[in-house]
């Protein structure tokens, strides 16, 4: 039996306000972790439960110092870390505002009786003697109109008071209803969690039913006695004997050497394993765990091969996969029942029934768990054997190990992930090892591995808060990285919408940095599929994805941006929509600002691609960047000795010169640029000192030749260059020495010679 230890781990989580009471909720996640200190296997979370601690807050008034109050709460509650002080202060501020708003909403305003305002009542002096009848009629009409206005205003004020009262009543009713629904949902979730805990305890109890309660301390001298017990009819005695042998193997390393030399013991175990492999799962699992201990030592692989342990393990895996196919319909039915019960908690109507797991379903769940453990041990033995010899791995491939590993990824267990997550992880590691050979990738495509990986990834995404998810996610990404070099797999990844999943993985803050880097490498591999522009379009289908890439480049924390990230951006810049988005003046300004600070050659290459594919209108906007580019060229040569300039800096200079080539159509006074930044001397230094790197030397000479042709389009600039005989001789010498083989550059050279000749003749 693989010895496992369990420890309890409490992790504080989200801190939020109580939706109903004047209190703060601190969410707590309690995890029970199994680990094996001897084999140093990856710790696995067996069970976890979520709870919360409610901290009631006294009534906050205007004189309360919220900062000091938050400090007192942190000192009293051990689940709140001091780093959360600012967040706790903000929550107290929100709680204070909420209590004041609730008071103002529920209060019913009382007002004084309405009287006509001074504006509507006109005080008019009535003369003592007034005999004109027409004027009296007008005055009566005016008084009646005033009275109607006063009555309308009184009615409006009454309606406002009624509406205020009804609004306050509605608000109070809504608050009560929300309180009822929230408390109802919380109670239902607590009921479901209790039910799941009870089921988990019941499952563990059933699993340990056949485990011997009082196992005697094993002694190496009693090994023959244990061998005799293996032939007993009582299954419990046989299991107890295997536990004693495992106890000996785990207690002392010398016992391992002694047992591997005991041919009688190995013959007995291998014979029973072959005879009983279809009958008693738990008994067979314990025997396989004994051979698993031997397989951890590479020197014993020949002994395991001699007793055909690898072949027997393959037969057991094949047999258990067939058994799972038979009971898969029952497993799916149980899974649907479990999902419906969980979704029922989110439904406001009707409480969830708190029934125990039926006995039939319990038997099926126990079968699944024992089967998963058996498959885990068999797969681990095969993985250890494959690492000792390439011949063993080839035998497994011929017997179709890839088919069974992919079939393992289809499994589901709706009630317990005790062994399933470990089995998934082990299968993915095995597939990752096999994917190193191109021949095995064909079999993986034949059995639709990409489709199964998509299903597994999306299923586990629902439980992304679980620590096991990050482990499985990393294993899936490593496997996809090996597969993404195949062109057919690249198409399948786009068909199964993996780019969207990869972008989400990169965007999440909780994703480890290593997983983000692997995700970027996979996206880059997909973008390199030559002749398939639809794949690049699939990678840039959503503008938020491309926006995220350029933001990561601009905000990259290190001096030089990660190579695969820039390479992915360069490939995606060929897509019209992406190029239009990244050619925005604000984006280009940020890129130029970053490259001016870091002198990153790959980032300069990205800018060069954006300029190369720009339309004439966009190139006109780039006119203002000519002087910064010249300044960057001179700065790069001044930062270190020209003779000791690194290859990366020469590459940066080369890409900056290419930018000059791409903006040659701009109407600029090149003579001012040439003289202001001393570009002639800079070009001469570049031609003389390139550290003997022929490739860089040829490329720099070529682009200096092209830039010279651009400068010669300006008459003043042409005269200035023609007068510098040293530069002209050096340019001709360099071109003759390095570019005479490349005949496709003859046109550029002849154009420059023609321009020099033309200006000299003038």
UniProtKB/TrEMBL annotation:
Residues 153-193, 201-215 have a biased composition (Basic and acidic residues). GO terms for cellular component: axoneme; ciliary transition zone; kinesin II complex. Residues 102-215 are annotated as: Disordered. One of its GO terms (molecular function) is kinesin binding. Coiled coil: none annotated. InterPro entries: ARM-like, ARM-type_fold, KAP3. One of its GO terms (biological process) is microtubule-based movement. SMART domains: KAP (SM01297). Residues 109-118 have a biased composition (Polar residues). This is Kinesin-associated protein 3. It comes from Reticulomyxa filosa. The lineage of its organism: Eukaryota, Sar, Rhizaria, Retaria, Foraminifera.
